[in-house]
Amino acid sequence: MSPNIRSRREKANELIRRGENLAKVLQMSKAMQTRFKLIPKAALNKVTVAGIRDMSLGRVKDGKPVGMCFWI
Q1: Rounded Cα–Cα distance for residues 7 and 4 (Å)
Q2: What is the tens place of the pLDDT at every residue in 26-54?
Q3: DSSP states of 13-43
């Protein structure tokens, strides 16, 4: 028998596995969309490194997020 021939059950299992992987990727992308937000074009300037804002850390001031405690 040829190694390329797969049963219906094997094909179904592979489709299920692919669907589960796709669901995980979509969940991660949704989490990224809620964490990061595009900065409006009016707020962009030559100093801006990226056009996104990290919503979980607050505004960045002097290279450090404002509103978070950093214990050393």
Answers
A1: 10
A2: 887 776 666 666 677 777 766 665 666 66
A3: HHHHHHHHHHHHHHHHHHHHHHHEEEPPGGG
